[in-house]
Design brief:
heterodimer; A: mainly alpha; B: mainly alpha; globular
Amino acid sequence: MLNYIWSGLVIISITCSIIFGNTSNLSKALIDSGASSIELIFTMAGIMCLWSGIMKIAVESGFTSAIAKLFAPLLRPLFPSLDKNSAAFKSITMNISANLLGLGNAATPFGLKAMEQLHTLNNKSDTASNEMVIFVVMNTASLQLLPTTLATLRQTYGSSAPFEIIVPVWISSACALAVALILACTLNLKK
Amino acid sequence: MEFVMPAFACTVVIFGLVRRVPVFDVFLKGAKEGIQLLYSIAPTIMGLVFAIDLLRASGAVDSLCKLIEPAAEYLGFPKEIVPMALLRPISGGGSTALLTALYQDCGPDSFAGRVASVLAGSSETTFYAIAMYYGCIKVKKIRHTLFAALMADFTAVVVSIITVRIFFGN
């Protein structure tokens, strides 16, 4: 899909610049964008390395599993038909808690494992089960509690209080997640 | 809220020490993974920043904004965030590139800058997550997954605007 979006963006830009007579701006942007993308990558590099390091400690010390245990009772009602000691439910709790901690990298393997186990429980059907819908919908909502990269970008571009947006982010995430879950659960009932 | 990050980092390090994890060695291992991740996404970011810089310079974003301005104003919607709101469910790198472009044009502490920040923090690349998770087990009938996920993204847009108005009053 990105192939079409990306080429679409480039073609639209060039066409528009000819229509609006902005071609000199365009060639300037073409040269500058290399430098500005490297700048963006370096800005993200620092926080990503630092935070990956800290979060690696969280994973290896068992901090993530402790969080997973804490959240298991909250996730229980969403997956009523799963055994709470099943491999699928364990993978789900690990995935969700890794997402909460902003460990996208660590969360994905758990998520893929959870999907495989749910697939087996669903007799390898090509139709999504209720649990799959709920689990994937949770992964399309942002659960991250500390938006570290976002705060870094804000700071780089001159924000006086890069973290001031954190409470609105939590509220907005919670509302989005609630809507997703309510819709998924109600439509699951209708099956 | 500025203390959240350092407090969390400190808790994790102390937890690691108590559990007798070689914290610095583990930190280095993680930091290396961070660099590797960045290395793998850097070309994507470069390509998308390139496309979006071109789009801004061409005047296409401005004319799109002008086009939707009356509707956006009527709804109390900052018109600058429309391109990002549209790209957000599709491409993480693309919406990051648009976010930084918006920070440059409006500033991160402007109304549009704050709304874009909250939106970026409270939504995900929906299509990517759905494609990845269902793709790995080759499930094709995803039922109402996409509908529920997109409604959540829409909620995030609306609530971002409302919360920024309530918290920062502009």
